[in-house]
Task: inverse folding
């Protein structure tokens, strides 16, 4: 059942984003930044964590989940380090995901021999 919940929530998020891409003149990069900002705002008010608890990876993997992770890291760092935590909390919370993305994309570039245009 966990897979079904993740599929449904992830699918709804992707469908909404696809509608924004198709029906607005917003560039995909701006839509992605908007998703991170929305995830951060929902995380700041504690509204996104219940969705993650219910849907698991269906809610934590999309960019909304990344924004939520950034906000959780900032909240924790501000509680521990004061104002300085505002600048370091997001990096600390998201470092593993960003590092994994960089490492796996580098390995993929060895395997698939990318071409520059």
Result:
């Amino acid at each position: 059942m966990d897979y079904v919940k993740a599929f449904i929530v992830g699918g709804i998020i992707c469908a909404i984003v696809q509608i924004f891409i198709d029906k607005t003149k917003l560039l995909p990069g701006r839509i992605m930044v908007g998703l991170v900002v929305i995830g951060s705002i929902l995380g700041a008010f504690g509204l996104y964590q219940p969705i993650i608890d219910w849907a698991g990876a269906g809610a934590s993997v999309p960019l909304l989940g990344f924004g939520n992770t950034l906000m959780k890291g900032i909240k924790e760092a501000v509680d521990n380090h004061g104002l300085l935590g505002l600048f370091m909390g997001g990096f600390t919370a998201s470092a593993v995901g960003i590092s994994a993305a960089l490492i796996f994309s580098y390995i993929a570039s060895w395997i698939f021999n990318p071409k520059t245009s």
Remarks:
- The chain has one domain: 2-112.
- The CA atoms of residues 4 and 55 lie 9 Å apart.
- The radius of gyration is 16 Å.
- The mean pLDDT is 91.
